[in-house]
């Protein structure tokens, strides 16, 4: 379906929206290969900031592109964008081993109840999703016609070939495979739980704490963006999961009490494009690559800047995760590597109060 001219005009109204459309994944409509294989439309990526390249050039000969500077006081290079104060980019902040660790945690422990995920609203709490997908399990709704049924909102994992699944299907009960649910996992929250419907933190909700090792990592990287003499206090984290074609629209993270404290944002898996706009969506955004292991900090004025992720690259040529995939499969077999080769995970850690 083509958008009407009016809708399209409205959608293109702001510089941020235009950039989102520029970088988003679109497919060729009339390619003769169209029926066989959808071909992504080529995109001009020449204007993107590539902090990997910037780091390389800086280490080689000390030069930086116009508008980029290295932050003082960091042990290894941390870059800033001159017209976006409070924004920090730490290329390759996490080692391969650390990346593997947090990918595995993001898929196994972080979505475990009582932490909430996007699936809670439909299925209630789901335990062991990743292992269930690995074991080809199916989530089946409790049969409402059964005498033993107490709650039709109850779902349980069954083996695909179990009588329970066949019976439930015969009776018209809903079922969904764990691997589909894993693909549709879009977010989980740890530490203080963010309530997306009310757009605030609900401190009354039960949760698992942010693991100490992740707190330590966040504190270490946050230090450069903290007000003098203060230590970052990780209180809540949102984990975003991206698959092919998924995007995160331009938004502000404005639900925390004190914007002088940074949000620590960790990228894992496939390479993505990140847009960092200004305080208005009319300000043209900076577009940059985010690779696995990069950390971004947004503090102070940068907390008032629109940002989003219009594109992830899941194809072998552009995803830039060869070494990570290898390390993951050597450490843990194929299941995590299979997931991450077409996915991206973002963990963003926040001081809420
Ligand atoms: O995925 C990212 O890198 C950004 C995530 C983000 O902006 C958010 O969760 O608010």
UniProtKB/TrEMBL annotation:
Every Fe2OG dioxygenase domain range: 233-353
GO biological process, one term: oxidative RNA demethylation
Cofactor(s) demanded: Fe(2+)
Gene Ontology molecular-function annotations: broad specificity oxidative DNA demethylase activity; ferrous iron binding; oxidative RNA demethylase activity
GO cellular component term of the entry, any: cytoplasm
Keyword terms: Dioxygenase, Iron, Metal-binding, Oxidoreductase
Cofactor detail note: Binds 1 Fe(2+) ion per subunit.
Gene3D superfamilies: Alpha-ketoglutarate-dependent dioxygenase AlkB-like
PROSITE patterns in UniProt: FE2OG_OXY (PS51471)
UniProt binding sites for Fe cation: 251, 253, 307
Family matches, as Pfam families: 2OG-FeII_Oxy_2 (PF13532)
Family of this protein: Belongs to the alkB family.
Protein name: Fe2OG dioxygenase domain-containing protein
């Amino acid at each position: 379906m083509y958008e009407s001219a009016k809708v399209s005009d409205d959608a293109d109204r702001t510089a941020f929206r235009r950039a989102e459309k520029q970088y988003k994944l679109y497919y060729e409509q009339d390619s003769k290969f169209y029926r066989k294989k959808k071909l992504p439309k080529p995109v001009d990526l020449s204007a993107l900031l590539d902090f990997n390249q910037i780091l390389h050039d800086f280490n080689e000969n000390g030069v930086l592109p116009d508008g980029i500077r290295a932050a003082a006081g960091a042990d290894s290079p941390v870059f800033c964008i001159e017209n976006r104060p409070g924004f920090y980019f730490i290329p390759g902040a996490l080692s391969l081993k650390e990346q593997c660790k947090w990918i595995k945690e993001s898929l196994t422990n972080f979505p475990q109840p009582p932490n909430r995920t996007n699936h809670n609203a439909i299925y209630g709490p789901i335990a062991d999703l990743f292992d269930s997908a690995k074991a080809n399990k199916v989530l089946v709704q409790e049969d409402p016609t059964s005498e033993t049924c107490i709650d039709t909102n109850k779902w349980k994992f069954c083996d695909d070939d179990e009588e329970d699944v066949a019976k439930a299907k015969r009776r018209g009960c809903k079922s969904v495979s764990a691997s589909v649910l894993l693909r549709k996992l879009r977010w989980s929250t740890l530490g203080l739980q963010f309530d997306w419907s009310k757009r605030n933190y609900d401190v009354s909700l039960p949760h698992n704490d942010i693991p100490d090792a992740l707190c330590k990592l966040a504190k270490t990287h946050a230090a450069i963006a903290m007000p003098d003499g203060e230590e970052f206090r990780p209180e809540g984290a949102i984990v975003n999961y991206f698959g092919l074609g998924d995007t995160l629209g331009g938004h502000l993270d404005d639900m925390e009490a004190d914007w002088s404290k940074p949000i620590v944002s960790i990228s894992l898996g496939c390479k993505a494009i990140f847009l960092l706009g200004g305080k208005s969506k009319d300000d043209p955004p900076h577009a940059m690559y985010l690779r696995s292991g990069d950390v971004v900090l947004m503090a102070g004025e940068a907390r008032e800047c629109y940002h989003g992720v219009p594109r992830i690259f899941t194809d072998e040529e552009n995803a830039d995760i060869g070494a990570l995939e290898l390390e993951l499969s050597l450490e843990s077999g194929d299941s995590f590597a299979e997931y991450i080769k077409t996915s991206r995970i973002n963990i963003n850690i926040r001081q809420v109060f």
